[in-house]
Write a structure and sequence with these properties.
Rossmann fold, alpha/beta, 7-stranded parallel sheet, globular, 9 strands, binds NADP nicotinamide-adenine-dinucleotide phosphate, 10 helices
Length: 265
């Protein structure tokens, strides 16, 4: 049960002001979930939550904060406590790509990147799981990436590493919480149309890639919704992404790394 007067379930979505998070918020609202949206752009969250409440007759709440700061998860959890909200579905989605090579960025940038991509999702899982276990229901969807399985390449150094860690973390959480009836899943999208490649400055490099390699944020959101109700630890959305994942498993790492190197050149 959520904290709202009617008994609608509540989904908490980080990174809900754009891309996959925005599509997830639209989808869950259309399925009559109350939504709690988190991101930094307060004006976007304010107008978006207003639109969602009006269109879908649900409660849409938001909290603007920078989840790359170590104190932010606690501020967010306090908001939930103050508003007496119980989260039924947690979606750790906020993220971005830090494209330059490792030493071409400051440690401060890398540290806040890790906070956003790993520490914050882990802390939110840690805080919200006990109530879900007690209730005997609840879902956690961690938005990882196909990059977490791809062979290593230069640049984006901690991106793939953080996504690989998020996948492993989710797989363990899934096993630990299976007996409590919880659904815990890492969703691993491939290339997805969103603001992601504008934010990390890679749009020009990628715009000539064939269209079949891309999914829309709506397609990924649909896949996440299904995955959140399935009993699986990992879900890869889309046939092309599944094929790439399988190919990578079959090829010796030496070969797949060479292919990736050639693509980088
Ligand atoms: N697009 C892809 O090709 C792709 C592929 C695989 C996986 N993913 C993953 O999918 C997730 C969503 O990405 P997207 O493609 O939807 O990108 P996006 O359109 O750029 O959206 C990213 C969201 O994260 C929020 N965000 C970024 N930094 C934040 C911070 N410090 N604190 C709070 N919120 C923050 C942004 O909101 P504000 O700017 O308002 O804070 C925005 O709502 C990410 O975890 C990404 O790694 C994306």
């Amino acid at each position: 049960m959520s904290g709202s007067e009617e008994t609608r379930p509540l989904v908490l979505i980080t990174g809900a002001s754009a891309g996959i998070g925005e599509a997830l918020a639209q989808l869950y609202a259309s399925k009559k979930y109350d939504v709690f949206l988190v991101a930094r752009r307060e004006e976007k969250l304010a107008s978006f939550s207003k639109q969602l409440s009006k269109t879908h007759s649900i409660n849409a709440m938001y909290f603007a904060c920078d989840l790359s700061k170590p104190e932010s998860p606690n501020l967010l959890l306090n908001q939930l406590r103050d508003r007496k909200l119980h989260v039924d579905v947690l979606i750790n989605n906020a993220g971005f790509g830090l494209a330059p090579e490792f030493t071409n960025t400051s440690w401060a940038e890398q540290a806040s990147f890790l906070q956003l991509m790993l520490n914050t999702p882990c802390e939110l899982c840690h805080a919200l799981l006990p109530a879900m276990r007690k209730q005997g229901h609840g879902s956690i969807i961690n938005i990882a990436s196909l990059a977490g399985y791809a062979p290593p390449g230069p640049g984006h150094t901690l991106y793939a590493a953080s996504k690989a860690a998020l996948i492993k973390f989710t797989q363990s959480l899934y096993l630990e919480n299976k007996k409590y009836g919880l659904n815990i899943v890492a969703v691993c999208p491939g290339l997805t149309y969103s603001e992601f490649h504008d934010v990390n400055g890679q749009r020009d490099k990628l715009q000539n890639l064939p269209k079949f390699l891309w999914q829309t944020s709506d397609q990924v959101a649909q896949a996440c919704f299904k995955a959140g109700n399935s009993k699986r630890a990992v879900h890869i959305p889309g046939l092309v992404n599944k094929a790439l994942y399988t190919l990578n498993k079959l090829l010796p790492q030496r070969v797949s790394t060479q292919i990736l190197k050639a693509r980088h050149r």
